[in-house]
Amino acid sequence: MDDKKILLSSLFHDIGKVLERTKKFEKQELPPEFQKISYGHPRYSALLVRVIRENSDKNFPKFLVENLTEEVEDIVLNHHNPTNEYGLIVQIADWLSSSEREEKEEQKGEYTNIPLSAPFKRIDENADDLFYPLTTLENIFPKKEVKIDPYEYDKLFNEFLNKLKYVEDFEQLLLLYEYYFSNVPAQTVGF
Questions:
Q1: Report field, pTM of the whole predicted structure over 0.85
Q2: Which residues, 6 or more positions from 145, have their beta carbon under 8 angstroms from its beta carbon?
Q3: For 122-143, what is each residue's pLDDT tens digit?
């Protein structure tokens, strides 16, 4: 496996967190081999990889179509239980990047409605609890109250997909991720 495929596995492994929150797909609509995975987001991440790979005629970038292979799909699908050393690399990176999260039991059923928290309260206990609206980086300022519904995830993901067809390399893909997903909370405790 080359570096491009490992990088794409890393970039696509958690994108299913956004797709899952759109509530567009039910478990029974997923391929049977995806249904055996206990977490929801890897199933949706792998689904996106498969859709891009199998629909090269749908204006997906050549860069992605050529590099999102079955091997990448397997790593993305199994990143919580890797099946090879490349998957283990993605799993360890995932563990390191998620080590700052606090899991709260009361939020498990409402994970699609919880906004990203601003970090200021962790630095200053007298600071207000502030939250980021679920938008692109056009709106980067947190607010005291933010309400989110799955339609906002759907809109954000569709806008991302519309721009994805213009991506020609990793740098552009990273910028697209940053622009659309910087205000998306990483935690998905619902599934």
A1: no
A2: 131
A3: 777 888 888 888 888 877 788 8
